[in-house]
């Protein structure tokens, strides 16, 4: 390798490292940020727009995390559970919450269905399997989601009759993968 291309490679590695760091750090972020200008992605899930408004890995939040999620008509979360508290605030649209309050049974079982709508809010009890979907054919469903104990450790089910013990752990979760590093030590 010639001296110039070697220098160029170092330069690229250096730039790459800087851009990685700035995407996963609050250093240099303005105090007040315009949500419309935060980066959003679907993380490979059709119909989803996810924005981490305040994140554990992204911003160093220790106790809670806030997401803004928009689901296009017909799209939904996987059936999943997590051992954290979760609060939803529906900002726009309508949809359905499927909730199986059966974490003490062997599998979730047929969930209860609840219509959700603009200005409604709901809590997901710790470890209850649930799914939230946009069941409206015309309008997007937009929700603010607050979870405790971030980053989220999510267990995913193929269906409502899959045993709790067979649900697959997805950690780090899709939007945390980019910034995840093996934690050194929790200071709290
Ligand atoms: C926030 O960002 C959006 C999209 O870029 C823009 O239209 C809006 O004017 C911004 N709001 C303020 C107060 O700057
Ligand atoms: C949501 O609540 C706010 C405050 O009460 C109200 O102004 C707004 O019209 C409500 N929106 C809907 C769709 O009900």
TrEMBL record:
Cell location: Endoplasmic reticulum lumen
Pfam families: Auxin_BP (PF02041)
Domain of life: Eukaryota
Alphabetic keyword roster: Auxin signaling pathway, Endoplasmic reticulum, Glycoprotein, Metal-binding, Receptor, Signal, Zinc
Cleavable signal peptide: 1-21
PANTHER family reported for this sequence: AUXIN-BINDING PROTEIN 1
Protein name: Uncharacterized protein
